[in-house]
């Protein structure tokens, strides 16, 4: 295995296979086999062959025709289904189409209506229950409009509602390492995995009553009986892991979790190859980042994230195909969650979003074209990068009328994890305000009864007018307050990295920011409920530069990614359409175009590393890196 891994590390790291020679950066060609006809046996002699050569195949062509009947003769084709998948895949012929979705927040509809019910949110906010007791971060939740739900609808149209079963296994914040733990008994992951599975707040393990072993059993049984599996994993190797590691390191000088690339592997040769790859990554990041501390942090974080993703992705796919070699498997590519994000350090604009996107493209190129199983599964990457920018652009255009906010933005404000829960927070504030200030108007109802009646459309004579005159103005005042704040932050061009490097206490500032924002929200909502005017006071929420820095991180890394990672129905439709189309046409031109596009992106990174020498392109083929379909 060590030879395989060592070789893989050198061919895997497509753009990272760079050596320094004679002061110039040269590119090793990791994908020569796709570019040189001579290497495949189609040498120059095969093109200009004598006309007789084509004639020779023509003659066998005639006998080949009679040979064709022989193929039907080999009615082994029916025999293959006869050997059917039934013994190994017990449910394959039970009349039920089994669809398994593996992934994280993008898969389970995190932040969408239905990820948590309003009743669950109310219980969580009241302190009656812990969020892990009602929803283990989206496990077995399939909100209406999330892509597993849309894929189910598609197959219901083919097989009927009673004949389609969905096992939605995605858990928010999962990385490839956590999926591997569930499929590989010999592996317990790194310190992040152990925290998620065994820590005091390790909510992965509580997904099933029997703990880790029961959860493993559900994953394995579901995969074994699946007809279709979508694998949408890797976001959090780059998203949760990188964002939290970077913010924590810049704020405290230490990492939250390990960044030791050697710990990923077992043998000295593998460890040495990983360190070599990390050195190449560091040289690449150094092209972008002058500040030594920032360069070190990015090198540590991106090296561990990328190398760990590729290594563990392969093992996850090995395990899936061992459990079920018969299912259709569609791998969903990773998108750039930080597209357009800039961090200013020492007067230099560090294009963090571009760096992030380049590493994501390396991971995508590996999964689409280099992984040992890449010919076994189908690969899609629907949608576009830049949803954070779309969110920020929409907020920059906010006109002060909360009714005009995009519904997806409202949903982000309402349902985004436990950071906001704006609608439920406002519900509680309205209920309390009604009971304290105008109990006579409730005609015997409690404030919470009023809210519940209005939201469930069980409207009494009193509830309806109160709902229209108090509740909606209150909620829209809350939306307006938050949207005005986000607009202010969206207009700051970058994140102040110097403040982070100078030891900004991010946790303390974040707590102060949340308190200040929610106080302003409730104050304005209460004024609106009482029919009074209000003005959003930005200075109360952002009293100093430190608050601006933390708010900028929060809006760009978290709230903006909530808008992307949990897209509206359009985003989920893109994934559903991509899955359905490629299943209907496995040789799809779109898949090939995507692979060429990823190769071109990797080529562009190569070109950056080549410095002044650039790349030589002849007939659409780069003579240095060997990538096809490239323009000069």
What does this structure look like?
Helix 15 packs across helix 26. The protein contains 26 helices and twelve strands. Helix content is 55%, strand content 7%. The chain has helices at residues 2-12, 52-73, 76-82, 105-108, 118-126, 131-134, 147-159, 176-183, 191-198, 212-224, 235-238, 240-252, 268-286, 292-323, 352-370, 387-396, 407-415, 422-437, 447-455, 463-490, 497-501, 506-529, 538-541, 545-565, 569-584, 589-610, and strands spanning 18-21, 24-27, 97-103, 164-168, 228-232, 328-332, 343-345, 348-350, 378-380, 495-496, 617-618, 621-622. It is of the alpha/beta class. Strands 4-3-5-6-9 form a five-stranded parallel β-sheet. A three-stranded mixed β-sheet has the order 8-7-10. The longest helix has 32 residues, at 292-323.
Number of strands: 12
Unreliable spans are 1-88, 608-614
What distance separates the N and C termini? 39 Å
Estimated structural class: alpha/beta
Question: Approximately how much beta-strand content do the residues carry?
Answer: 5-15%
Integer-rounded radius of gyration: 28 Å
Main sheet makeup: 5 strands, parallel
Average predicted confidence as pLDDT: 76
Count of helix runs: 26
Give the fraction of residues assigned to helices.
55-70%
Envelope shape = globular
What strand order characterises the main sheet?
4-3-5-6-9
